[in-house]
Amino acid sequence: MDNGLLVVISGPSGAGKGTICARLKEEFSELKVSVSATTRKPREGEVEGISYYFLKEEDFIKKINDDEFLEYAKVYGNYYGTPKQEVFRQLEEGNDIILEIDIQGALQVKKNYPRGVFIFILPPSLYELNKRIEGRGTDSKEVIMKRMQCAYDELNYAFEYDYVVVNDQVETAVQQIKHIIHAEKSRAIRKKAIINKVREV
């Protein structure tokens, strides 16, 4: 059996990564979601092992030192990371996994698992991105300005990815990513088991 596909999706805040990933999970029933670990406190409704693995900071740091994360970062005072063992186990069982993570994390994953498929989600324009962030109604003008500057800087990292998908219409973006996944699963390097089976006939 061939290993599963690790699909890593990231891009600027407001580009629509979460919406796209939710739609992909609806359409690909076999697509597994990696559960991240964090040191922040659980929010109402969050479930251990489903929403996150909630760890004490000293336990998280020990796992960092033991090289147990595919990627990790400290954001606003809390650690977040992707447990390596669980991801590799799922992939070895032939399951496809989707990771929705920030650019810093994606570059760490690329270093640790270059066979992944890395997709950068772009907004149609920075003007549209600004409209989307303002439309949330959750951020002050100062925060929006910081997010926009961050988004501008993050565009430089798009060239580190395998694919770029512009999220103008969610359904179109989802279809493009579906085509990417199907194409990647057909690459010869991922079909060793089938090729060897044909040889045996």
Give an account of the 3D structure:
With about 200 residues, the chain is α/β, with parallel strands linked by helices. The protein has a single domain (about 5-200), classed as Rossmann fold (3-Layer(aba) Sandwich), CATH 3.40.50.300. It is about 45% helix and about 20% strand. The protein has 8 helices and 9 strands. The chain has helices at about 15-25, 55-65, 85-90, 105-110, 125-135, 140-155, 170-185, 190-200; strands at about 5-10, 30-35, 35-40, 55, 70-75, 80-85, 95-100, 115-120, 165. The strands form 2 sheets. It has a 5-stranded parallel β-sheet, sandwiched between helices. Strands 4-3-6-5 form a 4-stranded mixed β-sheet. β5 and β6 form a beta hairpin. α1 crosses α7 and α5 packs antiparallel against α6 (about 140-155). The longest helix is centred in the last third of the chain and has 16 residues, at about 170-185. The two termini are about 15 Å apart. The mean pLDDT is about 90.
